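Teaching note: in complex prediction, the entire set of molecules is handled at once rather than each chain in isolation. The prompt given to students was simply: 'Predict the structure of this complex.' The entities are:
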Amino acid sequence: MNSDLECDVLVVGAGPAGSTTAKFAAKNGANVIMIEKRQEIGSPVRCGEGISKAWLSEVGVTPSSRWINVEVEGARIFSPSERVFEINEKHAGNEVGYVIERDAFDKALAIDAGNAGTEIMLKTHAIGVTKENGKVTGVKAKQYGKEFHIRAKLTVGADGFESQVGRWAGLPTNLQVKDMDSCIQYRMTNVDSDARYCDFYLGEVAPGGYIWVFPKGDHLANVGIGVQVSKLKNPADVKAYLDRWIDKHPGYAKGKKIDMVAGAVSISPPIKQAVADGIMLVGDAARMIDPITGGGIANGCIAGKIAGEVAAKAVKEDNVSHERLMEYERGWRARIEEKQYRNWLAKEKLVSVSDEVFDKVIDAISGHSVEKLNVLNILKLVKDKYPELTKEFEQFL
Amino acid sequence: MNKKLLHIVSKGDICLSCGACVGICPLDAIYLNEWRIEFDEAKCTRCNICVEACPVGAISIGQTTCDHALHPDLHFPGR
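The expected output is the structure of the full assembly:
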């Protein structure tokens, strides 16, 4: 049934980054195929489902009640002894704004890609890339048990954390265990979450990560944990950490679990190279996740837009060389890299902070207006209240 | 111990298909086939990184008499 196919741009993976890339490549005149290994885009969900708002217009996404569950006012950061620091939505970074139905969101983005002219193929796995003279020329794919070749002028790896496309193409996507957070989440009903806030619990409750409670409305919430497994005595304890936390919080212990998902995110510095001859990587596949929040949707879509636009131009010019694709490499770095690197540095510091220090810092800044809290002001407040702590952070002064 | 006797065993009823092992494997020896984790014996060097990365302890490396790459326990329906 499947004979070999040809296209200008082949996108592997129909997550947010892939669909955004496909949309902008197709909009700009490229003939695009997007393949997705699952039979249903966006499902099953493997995500906390919190996103910020600011970037949506940048990638041409209009907020829709089809995928927004709850619009939150802000985030609350809980220190280990559960002192609270409140941040309003504008300052909460990548993770706060809307709590979404991720499967509906992914579908909405795929619909945009489809409406722009992208050919979408479901249940289609990439099983390897093909190369000619070192240049990627498409992928070997498998659908309904049949193997075939999709020949593409340009291939885009948007295949997520477990990306194989990058590896097959020889791009440096390898991670160490310490560069990864493992996440487990329950969707729970009958819980006392506050629909105004996304909550984050820091410290030893989640070594190297945090516990989150993202409200889904009507006493429904996503209650999850992300931890650096390399920080646990027994890496298999991730679920035990989350269960223990839930047990200690009566407002959640009474909840009923209605689903459970797991996933992994990279918490690494930006990768060295996301393009090579005939290939680009976007999103989680390119390790574009914010190392502090573990959020990848915003960065993936922002990079996807740049990737799609550059892809369309490059195939039109019939030049998909590494040099030509540097326009994408420079574009995503200009937009994302500095913050990712800075947040990685901050994350490296945060994961070494003891519960006692976390408590003091949150105590020192709580009650202060977040608008005035830049890093320097935070340090001044901490210094006033706990002078002995300042040396811990003097590298940031 | 003869390395050839080593074999990765993943317990399908524990595995959550999160993909942590797939993403961390430096040798592209593990992949998600639909919701089934599969290993490529020929590529695996038993470096143990997947065992360290698995958040639910579903992977272990040990001796087995099973002589095919896909352990029967690996097959599970997923969602």
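Point out the following to students. The longest strand of chain A covers residues 146-157. Residues 71-96+177-266 of chain A form a domain with the D-Amino Acid Oxidase; Chain A, domain 2 fold (CATH 3.30.9.10).
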